[in-house]
Design goal:
Layout lengths: L35 E8 L4 H4 L4 E6 L12 H4 L5 E2 L2 H13 L5 E4 L5 H13 L6 E5 L5 H4 L8 E4 L6 H8 L4 H16 L3 E2 L5 E10 L5 H15 L4 E5 L20 H14 L4 E3 L23
Parallel strand pairs: 2-4, 4-5, 5-6, 6-8, 8-9, 9-10
Antiparallel strand pairs: 1-2, 1-3, 7-8
Helix pairs in contact: 3-4, 8-9
Amino acid sequence: MDRTELYRNCCLCPRECKVDRRAGKTGFCGMTSEVMAARAALHFWEEPCISGTEGSGAVFFSGCTLRCVFCQNHEIAAGAVGKPVTEERLSRIFLELQEKGANNINLVTATQFLPTVIPALQHAKKMGLTIPIVYNTGGYEKVETLRLLEELVDIWLPDCKYRSAELAARYSRAADYPETVKTALTEMVRQTGAPLFDRRGMMKKGVIVRHLVLPGCVSDSKDVLEYLWDTFGNQIYVSIMSQYTPLPHVAAYPEINRKVTDEEYEEIVDYARFLGMSQVYIQEGGCVGESFIPPFNYEGIERNV
C-alpha cells in the first residue's frame, strides 16, 4: 500500500478537511504532503523516564491539528518554521539520534505527516533502530489513524487538555476534543498495555498522559484528573504540568494571559493525592519561562557535511 495516498482527501485527524495535500493544498494543519520539521536533537525537558540524563531524541514537526491559542511551540504549530525532510532523510535522522545516545525517538506532533513517518520508521528499524518510539501528541487523534502505528509506537505521550467542550472550543477550536481524546487514550492503552520500565527507570512501554494546567481552570483540571483515574487507574502515568507560559499571542484571551499561581497548581496536585493517584509526575517551581521552549533552529534536520 502506498500510504502517501492518505494525503489525498486527507482525513488523518478528526478535522477531516478532505483536501488533496499531494496537490499542494492545505487543511487545518497548514501543511501539504511535504514533510516539514524544525529540530531533531537530544531533548532534556521531558518527564524523567523519557529524557533521563542522556536525552530524548525529539523530532519537532511543523504544523498541528489543534493549534491551541496558548501553544508554547506556536512558531512551528503555525507552520512559520520548518524545512523540508524527505522520507529517506527522516529515517537517517532517527538513526543519527540513536547514535548520539538518545533514550528514544520522540515524534512531536507528527500526525499530519504519518503517511511518510511510518515508512521512515519501518526503514530505520530495518537499518538498526532499536530504541523505543515515543508518540508525543495533543491527544486529538482518530482511532483509525492510531491503529496505523500499532507495533511501531512503544510509548504514547498524549495530552488530555480539557473535559469542558466550552474550553476546548474557545482555546483549540475543537468542541469535540473531550470525547475524541477519550477514544484516543483508550486505544493507546489497548496497544501498549501496562507500563514497563528498564533497570534504569526509563520507560520502555506505556502511556503517560500530560495535563497542562491553565490559569483559572482549576475545576476543569480536577475533572480531567478524575476522569483519568476513574477510567485508567494505574494503567497509565499522569504528568501534571505547571509550565504554562503566557506568550504575547494570548493577549486576546485576558483570562489566561497570566501565569498559573502556586496555589492553583498545588490545589490540583492535592486533588490528585485525594483521588489516590500515585503514578504522577509533578513539576517544581521555576518551570515557567521561554527557556523551556527549545530553539527551532533546524538543528539535526539537514545532513551534517
